Amino acid sequence: MKHFAAAALALSMLPPVAAAEPELQISWAGTRTANSAPAQNFTGSVRVEMLYTPAGPERTSAGSVSFAAGARTAWHTHPLGQTLIVTAGVGRVQRLGGPIEEIKAGDVVHIPPGMKHWHGAAPTSAMTHIAITEALDGKAVDWLEQVSDAQYGASQAAAAAGPSQAQRLLGDVAPKLAQLTDDVLFGDVWARPGLSPRDRSLITVSALIAMNRPDQLRSHMSRALDNGLSKDELAEALTHLAFYAGWPNAVTATGVAREVFATRP
Ligand code: MN
């Protein structure tokens, strides 16, 4: 009886609660995990971080998908279409029978319902996009065959691009250093999902400005623009670093930025 009275008293002290008020849901940055995409539906290294998984009657999901250089989805269709928002790097998308389109950070691709297509990274650059997909009867994608190397065009692209920058700069004197630069530095470290290509570019450009390395800064400024940094953001980095890395270094880097920016729209 005593317990009963205590429980009743405790209940009476609670504020009135509206019936089944839905909660605001926040998925905090840094709390989500990324998983490897299944090999039967992808080629190469692909990591998926689900941003939102629908519950109840909702049907729209969102995920951030990071493709290492050369990685891509298999051919597939979406019963209610899909929207891709490229957040970093350079990638490719193609519908069956259409040209391979190059997509970069900031580009948004809408794939209509039922259209057979694939998407992924460029042969020499990683790419991350957010994929927003609505399910029909619980199904958001129908997987088809893999995109072959010939369809992807990796070999033609590599041949058309000729020797890599590392091979041109180093290959005659230090071919092993050129190979390590291509395979380990750009093929592995830069493609790792732990940091986005955009963040890696900002770090690299900052280090090269601070160490006053204008020759390497030139190519990395250009790469940074490819990886989604804007000219304004790079100029802001220069200004910021003048206080930490020294005014002369920032002035030298400004000259490099002027050259690089002039070659870019
Ligand atoms: Mn798709």
Question: How much of the polypeptide forms β-strand, as a percent range?
Answer: 15-25%
Radius of gyration, whole Å: 24 Å
Cα distance, first to last residue?
80 Å
* Count of beta strands: 12
CATH architectural group of the largest domain: Sandwich
Order of helices and strands: HEEEEEEEEEEEEHHHHHHHH
CATH topology of the largest domain, which one?
Jelly Rolls
Largest sheet: 8 strands, antiparallel
Total number of helices: 9
Average the pLDDT over all residues and give the rounded result. 88
CATH class of the largest domain reads: Mainly Beta
Low-confidence runs: 4-9
Count of domain modules: 2
Which percent range fits the helix content? 25-40%
Short description:
The protein has 265 residues and is of the alpha+beta class.
Structural write-up:
The chain has 265 residues and is of the alpha+beta class. It folds into 2 domains: 34-159, Jelly Rolls (Sandwich); 163-262, Up-down Bundle (AhpD-like), CATH 1.20.1290.10. It is built from 9 helices and 12 strands. The chain has helices spanning 2-13, 149-152, 154-161, 165-170, 175-189, 197-210, 214-226, 231-245, 247-262; strands at 35-36, 42-43, 46-52, 60-67, 72-73, 76-77, 82-95, 101-104, 108-111, 117-121, 127-134, 142-143. Strands 1, 3, 4, 7, 8, 9, 10 and 11 form an 8-stranded antiparallel β-sheet that branches. The chain has a two-stranded antiparallel ribbon with strand order 2-5. It has a two-stranded antiparallel sheet with strand order 6-12. It is globular and about 60 Å long. The protein starts with a helix and ends with a helix. Manganese (II) ion (MN) is lined by residues 76, 78, 82, 111, 117, 119.
